[in-house]
Specification:
Strand content: 15-25%
Strand order of the largest sheet: 1-2-3
């Protein structure tokens, strides 16, 4: 009987103690902060890859402007092949006029999203466009 009363007393003391309260709060908030951190990394990766895609498109437009490519198909192939390491599903659409070269690249967001954990960018497509004056 005495043992039962002692254990109830210990149980009440344990319930009243506030040690470890911060640990519980930290455990509850950690997943939220981790998710926000992953979303920031995903957004930064998307912007970085978008800049890399723009660089490839601009380089291709410059090469086409000085008549480096023999045809529009060769130009489109070069751009898409150059984008394979960055975005394998990229589709380039060149538009060549008498005085300009314009290229539009459409990329699924899933190709340039780093983790895909959040699923926020699922189903989205990004478009990158660049123009260059041609050498006459």
């Amino acid at each position: 009987m005495l043992d039962s009363g002692l254990s109830k007393l210990k149980l009440r003391r344990f319930a009243r103690r506030e040690d470890g309260g911060a640990t519980i709060e930290a455990v509850l908030w950690f997943p939220v902060f981790f998710l926000v951190f992953v979303m920031l990394i995903d957004a930064a990766t998307i912007f970085m890859n978008q800049a890399r895609i723009l660089r490839v498109v601009q380089d291709g437009n410059r090469l086409y402007a000085v008549n480096f490519f023999s045809s529009d198909a060769a130009f489109k192939s070069w751009v898409e092949t150059s984008l394979d390491p960055i975005a394998p599903g990229a589709v380039a659409t060149p538009a060549v006029g008498p005085s300009f070269v314009s290229t539009t690249v459409t990329v699924p967001a899933s190709d340039i999203d780093l983790s895909g954990v959040t699923g926020l960018f699922r189903g989205l497509t990004f478009t990158v466009q660049a123009q260059q004056l041609r050498e006459l």
